[in-house]
Amino acid sequence: MTHAAAEHYRQIFDRRTPEQLRTLSHLKRFMERLVGDEEFRRALAEAIATPRAVTERYGINVDPMEVLPLWRGGYQQYRFKPESAPWPLAVMWDEYLREMMRHRDLLRDEGEMSTINPRFHAWRERQIRRCNDQLGVSAASLTHPIIAFELSEGCSVGCWFCGLSADRFTGYYDIAKSMQRFGGAWLVSRAKCLVLQSARASATGPQILWTTHTTIAFCSTTIRLRARYRKQQPQPHSRIRHSPGTCSGSSIYIAR
Fold first, then answer.
1. Mean pLDDT of 17-32
2. Which residues make Cβ contacts (< 8 Å) with residue 171, sequence separation at least 6?
3. Neighbour tally for 212: CB within 10 Å
4. Rounded-to-integer distance, Cα 91 and Cα 81, Å
5. Sign of dihedral through CA atoms 188, 194, 196, 199?
6. What is the pTM (predicted TM-score) of this model?
7. Which of 139, 114, 113 is nearest to 128 (CA)?
8. In this predicted model, which residue has the larger pLDDT, 178 or 55?
9. Does position 64 have pLDDT exceeding 70, yes or no?
10. What is the 3-state secondary structure of the chain?
11. What value does the mean pLDDT take over residues 66-92?
């Protein structure tokens, strides 16, 4: 069985050439600096005639003059419109952004559990509506995975809207030693009936939000445990998604 979110994500990159992917990576770096680096924004504003010198200094292979709708005020009105055609790199970035947002929505939809676990599904839907009401437009960025494995001590991001009040990041757990010591029992005991029921009854299994670097040992153990409790149906591949931080409003977080 093909998972819609996984297949969609794969096609985002498979349909692009290596050169296009490299260009996208530099556009992504440009946008990250634009959003998160005040000094970068100030430098761009001051170098009105020669903004390329700024991106060169930061090692970003993007000419800001070729992506004006992405950053310069008088041109942002053309974004997502036919008028943006004179800036093909800006169009490329916005097309990629649309595809990634679609992937985000598919991940959220694949957490649907109305027939597998109606009570949990009702709770999850309430949390989604709560986040939509309280967080405004930023709520759309949450995929609300039904379970998340947090394999680090603290969070490396620190979102202002964090519902967990997570401590600051101090390091990653030694997953290999944890697996050797507990033999995977900790995973079962903490996930309990939610994961086991969904793994037994679902055709797709639980959606997993992965928030630290993955290891073969942990992946293998997770899949073996899932297969153990899914005796009625063939085992598809588990879905494992990487995220740089912890910011879901309706996940069950498991430390170890």
1. 96
2. 152, 153
3. 20
4. 9
5. negative
6. 0.67
7. 139
8. 55
9. yes
10. CCCHHHHHHHHHHHCCCHHHHHHHHHHHHHHHHHHHCHHHHHHHHHCCCCCHHHHHHCCCCCCHHHHHHHCCHHHHHHCCCHHHCCCHHHHHHHHHHHHHHHHHHHHHHCCCCCCCCHHHHHHHHHHHHHHHHHHHHHHHHCCCCCEEECCEECECCCCCCCCCCCCECCEECCHHHHHHHHCCHHHHHHHHHHHHHHHHHCCCCCEEEECCCCCHHHHHHHHHHHHHCCCCCCCCCCEEEECCCCCCCCCCEECC
11. 95
Structure tokens at 156: 């490396």
pLDDT tens per residue, range 194-203: 444 444 433 3
**Range in 4-18, 69-83, 179-193, 201-215 the model is least confident about:** 201-215
Q: Left (φ > 0), alpha (ψ -120 to 50) or beta: where does 58 sit? A: alpha
Helix axes 175-182, 185-201, angle to 10 degrees: 90
Place of tokens 């649907």: 112
Q: Which two tokens stand for residue 112?
A: 């649907």
Which residue is listed with tokens 């998160």?
Answer: 36
Residue 70 in this model has a pLDDT that exceeds 90: yes
